[in-house]
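Quick illustration, no need to memorize.
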Amino acid sequence: MMFFRKIDELTRGDHSFIGIDSDCYYFAEYPSGDNPENKQNPIYSLIHNIKKPMNRQHLPEWRYKLRGINTCSETLRNLFTQTGDIADITLVPIPPSKIKENPAYDPRMLQILEGITPYFPNCDIRELLSCTADMISSHESPTRPTIDEIAGNYRIDDTLIAGCRPRIILVDDVLTTGAHFCAAKRKILERIPAAVIAGYFIARRVPPQNKDFLIEDFLDWLK
């Protein structure tokens, strides 16, 4: 189910780097963990599909990635049709973990944003940020990079700063810890200190619940 909600006091605890001053929104909840039931969840399938690596382009399953990208574009299109504020916003994709010269570079977020351009000729999409070196994708690494490490690897395209609109929306697929959002926000504010920056995410990660622990905790309470 797709809805549009803001990260608030009830959900902020699931995203360790997202503070009160972080203006972040999401459309759906992505269940994390190895629970077999997750594979039946349409949002789990959507995120899994759009994250398919670039080396699978020659396989029949690639159509599911393209379909997922279209679904995400349509979700954003419906939002901006309702809000009518796209003319006041510069949309910036949070860059993937690989540099553009790497064959594994996945421009899915840019493609999602480009999917709304036929409907909004006045939309402003800019790749303000890129990586200077390859990093391991957060979902593939047991240790997640810090905000400082991510920000240190981001580069601003100075040729794209002029003409940015006062409100900048950073767009990414999944909000996990929030480190990439915070790093991207910091990097942009270094160049455009007056910018008002928010984050739009297709989904926020919902940590798995330890049901066994909860049951044991309840039984201890009964004693």
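Residues 211-223 have pLDDT under 50 and may be disordered.
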